[in-house]
């Protein structure tokens, strides 16, 4: 059963406050599932996971993650930020770890959807990169840079989504001086590389995430105030 506007607002408030009991009561009243609740969005396309991740509500996040599919886990708001962007920017290590683990598990569980989402992200990133290219350069240089960027994009972890400012979660963490988050995410990328090696696949070049973080200093996210 779908939620009314009031019930949707109640779900988003519960997520913002980290109130699992309030969420449960709203769903019982609406006779709705947790999966339905996680589809809720406000006017800026923020979901319950965005709010709970941004504010570090780890128990709430752990409560809803089993019901979150890959599309919800990687959902982007109007600024292109995923829940992981906000958790990383605000320095919530446990939430970051939980989200990355859930995303990696969901990717394995639904390879078809993962392929679809990767393709959409690659296309969007290629368009963003093309729009930002220096058109005064020779055409062959522009093409070579586009090819290099496309290869780097293919090597990114599925959770390493770029927002509208061109930043991945690691970039946001670094710009807000959350070095522990940066190291945590770099470690998860290294684990992914090790898995590829164990499976007999070629070792990919290192991620360009550090370059992203050191590049554009314009921040794509902001802290949420739950007062």
TrEMBL record:
SMART domains: ANK. Pfam families: Ank_2 (PF12796). GO terms for cellular component: cilium. Keywords: ANK repeat, Repeat. Residues 196-227 are annotated as: Disordered. It comes from the Eukaryota. The keyword Transferase does not apply. The keyword Repeat applies. Signal peptide: none annotated. GO terms for biological process: protein localization to ciliary inversin compartment. ANK repeats lie at residues 79-101. Residues 198-217 have a biased composition (Low complexity). This is Ankyrin repeat-containing protein. It comes from Malassezia cuniculi.
